[in-house]
Amino acid sequence: MALSQSALLDLVEELKSTDASELMRRMLATMLQELIDAEASAVIGALPHERTEARTTQRNGTREKVLTTGIGDVNVKIPKTRTGSFPRFAGSPPTHRRRPARGDHAGLHRRRLHTSGR
Q: Which of 3, 78, 94, 109 is deepest in the core (most CB within 10 A)?
């Protein structure tokens, strides 16, 4: 899904009046949003407002998500579908952290962390 010419011109005008870090955040947000929308279209089997035989579901709005990056927080809109939540897109981090297995204290001791109450 490409930006229209007027949207691109508006973006260029906005970018001329912002500082470098804000410029990078906006560019990153625009690129990520385009990737998310493209991935949603591929999963759904149709572009927004397009009717095709390959369509597997329909869009049902969006939800806001804040991604923390090296240049600051970036807001994106994650599409929702009628059949449930849109699958986790490729750019999102895992939602859980790996815990050490029981009895795996070697790594904790190397970091001077102890599981006992000492």
A: 78
Quickly list H helices, the chain: 5-16, 20-44, 106-110
- Work out how many domains the chain is built from and give that number: 1
Q: Does 99 map to a domain?
A: no
What's the confidence (pLDDT) of residue 104? Answer: 54
What is the spatial distance between Cα 20 and Cα 26, in angstroms, rounded to a whole number? 10
Q: What separation, in Å, do the N-terminal and C-terminal C-alpha atoms of the chain show?
A: 58
| Rounded mean pLDDT, 44-73 | 87
> Would you place residue 77 in the very low, low, confident or very high pLDDT band (cuts 50, 70, 90)?
very high
- Residue owning tokens 């949603």: 40
Contact 91, 40 (CB under 8 A): no
DSSP, res 3: P
Q: Which of 36, 47, 44, 43 is CA-nearest to residue 76?
A: 36
The single-letter code of the amino acid at 103 is: G
Q: What is the pLDDT of residues 82-100, one digit of tens each?
A: 887 666 555 555 555 556 5
